[in-house]
Specification:
76 residues, 2 helices, four-stranded antiparallel beta sheet
């Protein structure tokens, strides 16, 4: 996971939540701060980074929805 994040220039702490490897990070664009919730999934021969985001003020409310969506992803 650390290598995947480094390869994609992603900073943040890695946390295991709800059975998923996750990280959070923030970025500002046009004076609006966004919080990103990232998930790293391992396929048979590859890793996939999925990021979902919202404005920082809405992030905690959106986080359970993001987790539910991430759990629907299947890799083949």
């Amino acid at each position: 996971l650390t290598l995947v994040m480094k390869a994609n220039n992603i900073t943040g702490d890695i946390v295991e939540e709800n059975g998923l490897q996750t990280f959070t990070t923030e970025a500002t664009a046009n004076n609006v701060t966004f919080s990103y919730y990232g998930f790293v999934l391992k396929g048979d021969d590859s890793f996939w980074v999925i990021q979902m985001y919202s404005e920082k003020e809405n992030f905690e409310a959106a986080k359970p929805v993001f987790t539910a969506w991430a759990k629907t992803v299947t890799l083949k």
